[in-house]
Amino acid sequence: MAETSSARGSWNSKLGFILAASGSAIGLGNIVFFSSNAYQYGGGAFYLPYFLALFVLGIPVMITEFGLGTMTNRSFPEALYRVAGRKAEFVGWWSLASALFITMYYVAILGWALGMMFGAFGSLFEGGVTAPFAPFSEPTDGPSATVYFFDLITTWWPLLCVVAIWTMNILILWKGTATIERAVRIFVPLMWLFMIGLIVRGLTLEGGVDGVLYLFTPDVQGIQEPAVWKGAFSQMFFSLSLGLGTMTAYASYLPKDADQVNNSLLVSFMNCGFEYIAGVAIFSLLFVFALNPVGGTLSLAFFAIPQGIAEFPWGVRLFGFLFFFLLVIAGITSSISLIEGPASALIDKFQIPRPQALAMVAVPGIVGSLFFALPQIIDPSLSGNGTLGLSLLDVMDHWAFNYSLLTVGFFECIMVGWVLGADKLRAAVNKYSKLPIGPWFDVIIKYVAPLLLGTVIVWNLIEEFTGETLYGAGADLGAFNWIPYVIPFIWLIGTLAVASYLTFGRTYKVAPAAYSPSDSPQTPA
Ligand code: TRP
Question: How is domain 14-514 classified at the CATH fold level?
């Protein structure tokens, strides 16, 4: 009985699925990481590679991940097992173990966003000394979001916020698709509304349009830099929620006859549309207030934007609050999907009740998130990343963001393209697609995507180890100088160990049948 898909849950409507999948895709990646990547790589130089990545990587891999979900009605590891055997299952678990690491710091960032959201009605926009007992506080002339942020993360409050965010995630996931659908029906439309509010505000300020021009004027010189391509590919995978089994888990709750080409196009375009809107809103603020975001990935969202909002002629607190509220809800509709991936895979493998699977993911997850929110100051000069939590987060993000997603994407294309045969996936998807995909899809999945991904990964690794120092080892972290060396090991050994154990150490309660095209109920007569 547990074998039936109704016991696993199913979406109530196609709209529910589209809201959930686009809610997964639209998140911190679109608001925080996209704009800081685009800024770092020079605006106009970034979006051409990014646009290309959407068509040659993003959409085809999304069709693949959605297709795997409906072909097998199982989450990522079992879906891969059914189409390509045990080795493929290993890739699935490796990706979910990586998803857990990413969730840990993703939730920590959301915890800070929640803290800033409360701050908007507290002293964030008041200036002066912002938080008691915080070592970075120096009386400032006006409000300083940077000071406020560092004051915040050097207190224990974010740990409480982290627990709050995890609790919300678990509540939303408690009854699976039923509760997810209820949450995304509220959060996803709200998220669009707030973003549109912000863009209207940004563009109606004098000078706002210059930011847009910076973002959209092509920079032919810039795109000759290989780093831009690496940034664009990683960002595309992250933004579309690919490479961590998320989209397969969500698609596995769809009926077999779902049109996955249509779904992939819808979700990808909604995601990238939102991303450009967010980019326009953020870049217009940057230019209006001549803000110069320095420092790491988070500085744009956490310092520069609130700083811009602080200079609004009216509505400072309201827009400040809305911006962080937007971050929190956009982030939660993504973090639930990051947690649902591993949880649904554990349910499929061990046929355990959902609360037990959620606990297996949430307990290590919360512990990890708390580490990333630790407030001890280990780098008083702030040349590195300030607190212990932020330093751990920065190094973990470097490895997980740049390697996990692309590596999984690479092996996924090999397994589906060569072991199963890209044509088989294409046939299964085309059976229900109003817009059938042509043989170009096979070429992309078998050759183009693995070649592009493989090149970027290898080239990344070469850069990594031929540089002066290992990532993050440049800063003086005193007694914590081990962080840049130990974190990559924890990530690599940890994810490989979990994946090996779950693939080879434990067997399926119900042995997975190999995929056969006749699995589909509506084989044409
Ligand atoms: N796409 C989300 C964002 O842009 C994050 C995310 C959710 C994700 N699920 C994922 C990233 C799976 C990679 C893989 O914020």
Answer: Amino acid/polyamine transporter I (1.20.1740)
